[in-house]
Structure formats: C-alpha cells, structure tokens
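haha ok so turns out i had the wrong file open the whole time. this is the CORRECT one, sorry everyone. sequence first:
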Amino acid sequence: SKQAPLMEVLKKEVRAMLIAAKAGLTPEQLEEQYMAMVCKPLPLRDLGFQSTLELVTQMPEVVRICSSKNGTLILKAIADDSTKGIAKLVANQKVKTRKASKKTAMKANATFPTKNSKNPQSFQTLSARTPILPAAVKAELQDLLSSSPLLLIDLDKAFLRHFGRAFQYRQYGFLSMFEVLRSMSDSVVIEQTKAGSLVVLRRYLANQIEQEEVPRVASAAEMPPLEPIPETESFHQAALLVDSEPVQTQAVDLGDHVKRVSGWTNDLYIFHHQGSEQFPPTPEIPPDAVQDRSLCSLPPLKRRCLVGVIVEFVVSPSQFYIHICSTEASYKLQDLMFEMRHVYSHKVASDKYIMPESAVRPGQLCCVMVCKWWYRVIIHRVINDQEVEVFYADYGHLQIVQKSWLRFLKWHYLKLPAQAIPCSLAWVKPVEGTWSSAAILLFKHLCRFKELVGIVDEYVDGVLYLFLCDTSTKEDVYFHSVLRDMGYADVCGENIPSQEFEELNPSALYVQPSGKQGNPGVVEPDLCLQQESQDEDSETATLKLD
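then structure:
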C-alpha cells in the first residue's frame, strides 16, 4: 500500500530530471542526479527493484530507453500534458560550440516589468553564457595542480586519488575535461609536450621562474613553522610554508587541546612556558582570534539592476542563496579558502586556535574544516557534547559538524563580506500555500550549475527579491513564468514575504548589514553586469556584458 504513492512521486521526480537533460541520462547519471537533488539514493529496495534499469522499465509512460551509437543505454523523458511546455523549452536549448569565443562588450536594452504590467515576461533577450565551476571545485583543481603539473589524460585519476571521488564535470554542464580547463584559462595553462597535453597552474609557472632567477638560500622544508602566518604576510608567502603534518579530515578528539610535540619542537614549547612540564588545561586565546565580531553583508544592489548570479543553495523558490558573478569576488573567495587551508593545516597553528568549550555558543563566528577545506561559519545551535549546527556564511546552508572541527577565525579573515545573499523569487507564490516537492525539484533543476541573469526587484526584511532568467536557450527562460506554466505558482505582481525566511533567516540573525561592521577594509565587489541608467525613474536599463 505504501509502494503505490511512493512510485507516483518518484515518477514525477524522474520525469523532471530527464526533461531537464536534453541529451538524456544514463542509468548511472540518473542515480547521481537523484542523489544530488533529493539527497538520498533512489528507493529501489523500498519498491522491490534490484537496479535502476529495472525500475525505469516499469515506467513506460515516463521513461523512454534508447541506445547510443556506442551501445550505451540512454534514458529520455516522455512528457505529459503538464510538462510539454518545459520539454519544448529544453529542446530549444542552444548547442554550445567548441570554438574559442572572444570577449566582447555589448549593450542590450532590457525593459523591466512594473507593478501594473500585464506581462511579467517583457524582457529583451540577453546573452547566453557558458557553464562555470563552483568556487570550491575550482579551488580543488587549483590545489591539485599546485604541487606539480599533470598530463591531461592523468587528471581524472589524480583527482580521484587526491580527493577520494571522481570528478563529475558533466554535472556542472561541461562536455569534457578540456572545456573545464578552458573555463579556468585565467589560472591554468595547457602546454603541448611529447608526452601529451600538460596542465600547468599559472602560479606554479610563476614560482618556477622565481626559483630560477633567485638563488636558493635555504629549503622551506628545513624550517618547520612554530607559529601561524602573520596577518601581514601574503597568500604567496603562506604557500611557501612547510607541508608539515596536516590536520586529519576525520573528526579527531581534541579534548586535551594541545598534544606534546616530539623532539626539539616540544623542548621549545616547554622552554617558552618557563620549564613547565604540564600543558595548561585551557589554551590561551590568541589575540587575533575573532570573539565578539560579525561578518558584514555585501552592499545592497540597486533596484532594476541586472547582475550575473549563481544559485548556491536552494530550500525552495522562496528561500535560496546566490553568489554574484564577479571575477574579483570569485578570486577573493578562492584566495581566502587557499590561505585558510595553508594556515590551519599546520598542526601547531591549528592547535593554537582550538576553541574552548566556553566559546562554543550560538552566534560565535569561527571556521570549520570539511574535506580538508576551511569555511567561515557561525554556530547556530549546540546539538550535544560532540556536535553543533553551523551556518555557512559564504554559501547559505546549515550543517551539523563535530565540535572538534571548529577553530577560532583569525581577525584577518573577517574582512571579506559574507558572500551568500538570501533571496526569494519575485512576484510568485505557491498555488497550494506551500511549495510542493515537484516545484522545488524543478526550481533546483532550473538553477543548477548555471550562470543566470538576475533582475533586482526589491529588498524585504533583508531578503533580496529578484527575477531569474536563463539566457542559454533560443528564447530567454524566466523562472517565475515556468513555475506558473507548470501549475506550481501564481504570479501575483507583488512580493509576498517568504514564510521560510520568516521562520529562520540565519543571515539576518548573524550577518550585519553592509557598513555596520565598521571595517574600512571592506570594499564593494565589482559586478560582472552593471546598470547604467541615465534616469532613475526610467524603466529601461543598459546591460553591460563582460
């Protein structure tokens, strides 16, 4: 009796996923996408199936099983009456060419909807955009190449060996690894050698040139650091630190806070504490540790301006978080992640910033290590003696982590504003009072790993209400119109306060509005797309595409 409703829900989810994939998906790709979007595996056992292929054969009205030229099975959606519209939009998607595109600046007039407009979708066509990598993924690739160049044919294996998982570039919208690297041309170079295409990090090349020009005095490996990098040192100096024993990625019990270090390191520590043979029960809090300060938000965007955005985290169309697409902002976040990793991965430095139990409290700004990377977080609540729930200020989601993974945030890392902007889709409300799982799944598919154009409407209680548009199709796709056409939303011509954000808005709780932090180091990031309106009251804005 439980299997029938479960099967009906699953059919809707599978159809939505396959419709969004123009070329279809293999059974393996369907499993991966379902796991990524629903956060749990396909319920094969609950429905009595042994494999994904066996499951889809029982959905003849939903899935069409095809065979590619090389014999690979491809699953494609069979649209029903309610999904024919979105299927047509996907079918009209432009096929990306492999020719190298030149950067050109162009202007396009865009007419903005007004409160009295009968046609909310009255915008001019905007320029299509290529896929982009999330900042964390790009940082992983740069970290992989930081030690030495790699042959292109070996890059997949090296990624798997280094990070313990395969690099699924197709889920970010790329057709090949070469396309991924081409999108990183600002930081990666491909050189042709007798052995094949060699992938080299530009910073690695720069370091090699410096080493050839400057005589080497002493090896960094001979000088293990005893203290964390001073705030005044640059990221490039941090990269020259010895790769001493890194902090393990597992949840390690650090209850004793500081362990004895063997050899001369321990002798120096004991000498520093005037011969004491016992470590202090509570470590002294470093003077540069953030204790009672908050991150500030990015400066508010002007009404009617157009910006390139990436949707980082989705709860529903009424609650999601975006990043502004800006080369400068992207570099600042990547550099912050790299520098934090280099500083906190050294054991002596990391141990110095261990947080005592008294500091682990709601509202405390700190950082957490997840899969060897460090992120700025705010403690939302203490779960138990071992776990806390934290809010990722630069990405927008909540997560339960081990207390032992937390460290004080250095004051230097307070300067960059919180990069995640809380948002709600403008002018829409769910037809049923709350967003259905199918509506949320469709919205996630529309947003996933794409650079979109956002049209700013207004701010309500610190939440940005904006329209989202996908310009990668022959006709621009406006998300509020898609949700309306699919029967999931009503377009109401005004912004209804988000029920989800009213229940919980971590950004409003823990992030100070721009300018309230009192930090002169905070600078407004450059936007990839900027408004140039000659008249504030005009309904026409000029869009510049970099």
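The chain is about 30% helix and 20% strand.
again sry for the mixup
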